[in-house]
Write a structure and sequence with these properties.
Layout (H helix, E strand, L loop, with lengths): L5 E11 L3 H12 L4 E4 L6 H4 L30 H14 L4 E2 L4 E7 L2 E6 L2 E10 L20 E2 L12 E5 L3 H12 L3 E5 L14 H9 L4 E3 L2 E6 L3 E6 L2 E6 L2 E4 L7 H7 L23 E3 L14 H22 L1
Parallel strand pairs: 1-2, 1-6, 2-3, 6-15, 7-14, 8-9, 8-14, 9-10
Antiparallel strand pairs: 4-5, 5-6, 11-12, 12-13
Length: 330
Amino acid sequence: MKKSIKENFLTDLIIVGAGPIGLACGIEAKKNNISYLIIEKGCVVNSIFNYPTNMTFFSTSQKIELSGVPFVSHGIKPNRREALEYFRRVKESYALNINTYEKAESVSKTGKYFTVITDKAIYHSKFVIIATGYYDNPNLLKVPGESLPKVKHYFDEPHPYSGHKVAVIGAGNSAVDVALELFRIGADVTMIIRESRIKPSVKYWVKPDIENRINEGSVKTYFNTIVEKITPNKIFIRNKNKITGIDNDFVFSMTGYHPDFSFLKKTGIKISREMCPVFNRKTFESNVKGLFLAGVVCGGINTDKYFIENSIKHSETVIGEIASRMKMRS
């Protein structure tokens, strides 16, 4: 049976992505009397929903507040549950116009208008903002066995892995958080790290904890080491020219994430040699006129460059630019 498609829905602005920055863009559009629609393939702040259950943010609650809506958390740094509650409140406070569980499949421009095709409708708009983040696209190891069911690129909670042999790949915040949570519930944890040390950017209140666990041998760690292949019962690693097989039940490959470059390219946005979308650093407009970027998607593979707290102002800049152009047209 052919699905029903709604066509010719015209609005001033389509925002792709309902993460914190997509919400901020919607709020600014509303303040400037710009008609808009936010399209999100999952739930509101879908990436935060998929964060580990026990995750604590690096930023303080005050620094990730949107448009004057107070973010009150039990501690200085909010956790995942508090963030989900907060952003739900923001959505409700501003009665934001959001279509959740609707996936944007393409964005194209003909003449003065954009056509945004989703799995449910076809929209036309004067401007488009892409605020899709990067969390849906893990960086793959590209080794044999990576597709095995025991290999995971996301972590929810530690309980299912208690008493099992678990390898954690990576040296950043995600890898460290996973290793510590698994260690505390009785998993046999081995960290496999390409670098010679834990990354300096690891949360300052967590870094001494993991270093102490490594130094005392509670978390076995191989530095300057890469993964060669993964089998149902082992993981094979290479250090210099030596390959070692380690007994293993589960693998958490916490090697980072990247934007959906294929989607960006389909919109006409150019990608630089440094694997970063091309855009104007002052206006956040891409090489496609009227098509803007906002939030962590701007960093490309440099996912440590933009965070919620330093990307919120993107919304003010982008919507200010759009509002100015609309006044010129009228």
